[in-house]
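Dear colleagues,

For the upcoming journal club I promised to circulate an example of a predicted protein-ligand complex. I picked one with fe (iii) ion because it came up in last month's discussion. The inputs are reproduced below in full, followed by the predicted structure.
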Amino acid sequence: MDFAVTRRRLLAAAGAGGVAALTGARPAGAYARLPAELFALGVASGDPTPDGVVLWTRLAPRPLEPGGGMPARLVTVQWQVAEDERFARVVRHGVSTARPEAAHSVHVEVGGLAPAREYHYRFRVDGRISPAGRTRTATAAGATPDALRFAVASCQDWQNGYYAGYRHMAEEDLDLVLHLGDYIYEGEITAAGTPDTPGYVRAELPPEPVRAEPYTLEQYRLRHALYKTDPQLQQAHAAAPWALTWDDHEVAPNWAGGDDPDPAFPARLAAARQAYYEHLPLRRAARPGTGFRLYRRLTFGDLLRVNITDTRSYRSTAAGEMLGAAQESWLVDGLTRSPARWNVTTAQVLMAQLDYLPGPGRSFSTDKWDGFPASRQRLLTAIAAGGVRNPVMLSGDIHTNLVNDLRIDFEDPDSATVATEFTGAAIASRGATPEEEAGMVALLLPESPHIRFFEGYHRGYLRCRVDRDSWRTDIRALDTQGWRGQVTSPDAGIRTLASFVVEDGRPGAVRV
Ligand code: FE
Ligand code: CA
């Protein structure tokens, strides 16, 4: 079924029940003045369930201008989901309204699909058809998939490097992409860096209004739009469903939503939230007007459950709560009552203890779980006491690849390993120099034997595969490198830097 047929059927169906409800009451021809390139920001899908997925696009013909180059009026958008990439077998279709107050973003929650199946989707506005995306539904409850494949990404500071990692990710056959935050960076976009002041490595600067540090909704929209113009990021979104949570740089450095003392912060946070929702394939529960609840679960039959957390919105500023009471009990509940063999939690920021002070004494980064030791201890204790099957923590934020044994007592190297943690390096954000990297390995690792692997120079992502017997993580590393590992070419190649396996029933990863 093509779009023309779809539209005729829609109009025929609407004839009985009211055209306005289905078409947004736009008379035919009303789109004549819309610019040609409506889909400059690509398409995306997210949060797969066994019977559905969220489809996303945003109409923005001139993404780096305020308003995205769209007129300030409602626009009706048609969508299709097909079994085949030529859209010969359309199984679901409908219409949605892109509203100026939501930056003409479109979020469609499609249901009625079959589990564990590949689908293709696209949008149409006034005869212009979007690029097509590929997505995949989750495994049915109770079903047993042979294996699942997913990638873990984080930290994509646009000005610090190209998104070559996303081109390689798009070529993997994935059930899911997990993004752990720092999808945008709010810092000012500046002129090219030097080896002494490593910074901007892209070939050209964006227009002036896009470079300023964002505080208002329009500024956050411009920043998200800039990131979304990257063709390799669009490619990865179009290749698989994503599930995302945010970290600090979507809003402001190291923010803590639980008790931020700055009276100007709530307005900034509200702007950042709105723009974040508008630019990503998130479900209604994550919409700012309906509570902005980002913590949620995805479950793939009896093989894999992913608990996606929000470690920013409810955290207190110092040494208090990381998750907040409601999210913490939700998480413990989801872990201890899981039907799945592998139970992922997005720790987001490093959960393993990391002592930055060589020799006697301790120095911890208070923005990571090291700054919330009571929250961490409660969670690891609950995991141990609850007999959670194969708990795996996934984190980013630190721009470094780590593989960690999460011990019930980090000060006692003989204490039980309760869970495994994989921390992925950044897609683009800068890392350590080779000299800094060597120094950290030599000085920090001997005092942290629960850290099995530490590599801070290469940019990349984690590729994970789970089956009934084991979990495998391949640390994927890009090969074109700047002073701090920056990806200086969009054509950078990739290789596997190291691989680790966790056996069913035995926490802690083993290098293979
Ligand atoms: Fe980051
Ligand atoms: Ca020390």
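Two points we might discuss: The radius of gyration is 23 Å. The pocket of calcium ion (ligand 2) is lined by residues 355, 357-359, 361-362, 447 (CB under 6 Å).

See you all on Thursday,
B. R.
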